Amino acid sequence: MMFHGVAGLLDPAVFPFVCGLLGLSFGSFLNVVIHRLPRMMENDWRDQCAELQGIPASSEREALTLATPRSRCPRCGHTITPLENIPVASWIFLRGKCSACRAPISMRYPAVEALTALLSVSVALRFGVTWGAVGALVLAYSLIALAFIDFDTQYLPDTITLPLIWAGLLFNLFDTYVPLRSAVAGAMAGYLSLWSVYWIFKLCTGKEGMGHGDFKLLAALGAWFGWQALPAIILLSSLVGAVVGIGLIVVASRGRDIPIPFGPYLASAGLVILFWGNELIRFYLRLG
What we know:
Elements: H1 2-9, H2 15-52, H3 89-93, H4 108-127, H5 131-153, H6 158-171, H7 180-205, H8 212-225, H9 230-251, H10 263-287
Helix pairs in contact: 2-4, 2-5, 4-5, 5-6, 5-10, 6-8, 7-8, 8-10, 9-10
């Protein structure tokens, strides 16, 4: 009976619906990751600095993990109940406000949940019931988390980027997306290309043009899609980043010296390649 139940969930007609529900659930978890992981990193850095100075780590700070404490309103401390934590639906039912103090709840939360669900359904339709769909879901969820974390904090956590490199190589052991040789070359070329740009810019200007996390994220995308996809990824992310950056300067009067995170544009380009990479690569190879 259990086998027939699992087989029913993996039916091609049902699979997109299952992935959509999975995406809603993971979207709720990704909101936790996006909010807490940077704070966990900062707490670790403070503890390491205190240890180097011979100062005891703070015992007054509440322990923070992805699982504890339970989610609560940042204004009044109201603990979010299971019924208030249903993806998208709870935000709509609560009209975007805390049930206790009526403080506004950012629309970011249901937006991330809806985006994750939409990408999950798209993966199911694009890859079907295959290991390629499993890998694509892993990649899509990781890129969503990295994009929003970098947008908020300009961090690209090693706890996501480094496993993502190894995951890409693991899936391509079986030529899931590209041959393994292309994946290994892509990981190396992805890292070295931005590493070179970083050092050339630093030697010419004395400033750091990007963070090391960008090197690792492009290496991860190279590991998933191979070296052939790197020109398209760099071009897409640079074009979008340039347009957004110019728009912020012109429309929002943002200063030219204020750094703009590159991770969201790399992540967006990676998602484009995930769904339309073969077509884009064939297109620019024809142009060449």
